[in-house]
TrEMBL record:
Keyword GTP-binding listed: no
Nuclease among keywords: yes
Domain DUF222 as annotated: residue spans: 28-290
Bias-annotated ranges (Low complexity): 400-423
GO MF terms, alphabetically ordered: endonuclease activity
Sequence ranges of Basic and acidic residues compositional bias: 424-436
Segments of this protein annotated with the region Disordered: 319-436
Organism this protein belongs to: Prauserella alba
The protein, known as: HNH endonuclease signature motif containing protein
Pfam families reported in the protein's UniProt record: DUF222
Keywords: Endonuclease, Hydrolase, Nuclease
């Protein structure tokens, strides 16, 4: 099985290298292959780069994969070591490594041992480039957030070795000090909590850390009142248990914001506008409604995305609004910067219907993918098949005339509005205040 799997890994990487050479656009190719390979776009980009490197720079390592000696994980470890080298130096390391492995024991093929051998050979082939490689790697330091399971995520920081060691030493020392002081939490829990406290600027070790930055947590009212345990979501992560959501919600530092949803669709109500730049209310409502980038395989939280007009606000002639798209919730959607730019690339056809939450993407080579947004709340009744902006404006105007708040249950009356925010008069629909 190991030999079979290694051979398939080799064929996949070689095929990706061929496709890269034929297409000439690795970013676009990675987007097309993301739903095909059923991995993240970043992982596809890694595989394309690895396939290119193996075929051009380390053909003997690729031959070892085809022979079943080495799988994709081990090859990735070696390629990471030789990545900073130029092509000639990488080919030298490839040859020297293959020669050393001829008589090597089987344990030499383990990824860690293989990377260690490659590291020594890199220093032998390019002894003067050690400093340059270190500086290049340090320039690529970063922090990554990876969603996990059971309402947990991993925050990973890639730092210079001495900085990372110093950070861990301080966190460990503070955790051990708290433990000696009688703290009942385990050392692992204390290290995690101390790290979070330091980042969030809180008193270290006093209590288990709580979120202090902006995150969106969606909790239906019946769940908030413990009448139900369904429908709780953390944007950028997904469903979380209702008891955990209520703990976050009842934190004294949490901020509540009421979101008026249509009971027929489960979606937040529309806020039509004619201005080019979306107001804070429009941006917030779009983020609450869509929660993530609208591309089917992208899960970047909407709060970290651009606000994109699905129908252009202005045509080439420069006439405001002539492109058919108003600045409104009904014409807006979140796109991460990468997919915002991809939308206008040749060959890509990306369509998003904000009202129904349907995304349809056609790639340059003809594959089409469709996804549907999950509503914020589960619909409780059928809604009329009317979803135009004019319908929403008319409904708000009718409710205002009868003294009823938009979205309020039938039969209940509220005090008449002091301002005509629900008016259907086009001249008076341009304020930036919410209609509820």
């Amino acid at each position: 099985m190991r030999v079979w799997r290694a051979g398939l890994d080799a064929e996949e990487l070689a095929l990706l290298a061929d496709l890269s050479a034929a297409v000439g656009d690795d970013r676009g190719l990675a987007e097309e292959l993301t739903p095909v390979l059923r991995v993240s776009t970043r992982e596809v980009e890694r595989r394309i780069a690895e396939g290119r490197s193996l075929t051009r720079r380390m053909p003997r390592l690729l031959a070892s994969m085809r022979a079943g000696e080495l799988g994709a994980h081990g090859a990735r470890r070696v390629l990471t070591v030789v990545d900073p080298l130029d092509d000639d130096a990488a080919r030298q390391v490839d040859g020297l490594l293959a020669d050393k492995l001829v008589e090597a024991p089987e344990t030499a093929w383990q990824p860690g041992n293989l990377a260690q051998r490659a590291r020594r050979l890199v220093e032998k082939v390019d002894p003067g480039g050690h400093t340059h490689r270190a500086r290049r790697a340090r320039a690529e330091r970063r922090v990554e957030l990876t969603p996990g399971e059971h309402a947990m995520s991993t925050l990973e920081a890639s730092l210079p070795a001495e900085v990372a060691a110093a950070c861990y030493s301080r966190v460990d020392g503070m955790a051990r000090s708290l433990r000696r002081g009688g703290e009942q939490r385990t050392l692992e829990q204390l290290r995690a909590d101390v790290t979070a406290d330091l980042i969030l600027g809180r008193d270290v070790g006093v209590t288990a850390p709580e979120a202090a930055a902006m995150v969106y947590l969606h909790v239906p009212m019946d769940t908030a009142l413990t009448m139900s345990d369904e429908g709780c979501e953390l944007d950028g992560y997904g469903p979380i248990p209702a008891p955990i959501a209520r703990e976050i919600m009842t934190n004294a530092r949490s901020t509540w914001r009421a979101v008026l949803c249509d009971p027929g669709t489960g979606e937040p109500v529309d806020l039509g506008r004619t201005r080019r730049r979306p107001s804070a209310v429009i941006r917030d409502l779009v983020r609450v409604r869509d929660r993530e980038c609208v591309m089917p395989w992208c899960h970047r939280p909407a709060r970290h995305c651009d606000h994109d007009h699905q129908h252009p606000w202005a045509v080439a002639g420069g006439t405001a609004g002539a492109g058919g798209g108003s600045t409104s919730v009904a014409n807006g959607g979140p796109r991460c910067r990468r997919h915002h730019r991809l939308k206008d690339q040749p060959g890509w056809n990306t369509r998003y219907n904000p009202t129904h939450g349907i995304t349809r993407v056609t790639t340059p080579h003809g594959a089409t993918y469709t996804s549907r947004r999950e509503p914020v709340l589960t619909p409780t009744r059928r809604a009329p098949a009317r979803d135009t902006q004019a319908h929403h404006a008319q409904a708000r105007g009718t409710q205002a005339r009868h003294g009823q708040a938009p979205g309020a249950p039938a039969g209940r009356r509220t005090a008449p509005a002091k301002t005509a925010r629900g008016t259907t008069d086009p001249k008076r629909q341009n304020d930036d205040n919410p209609p509820f």
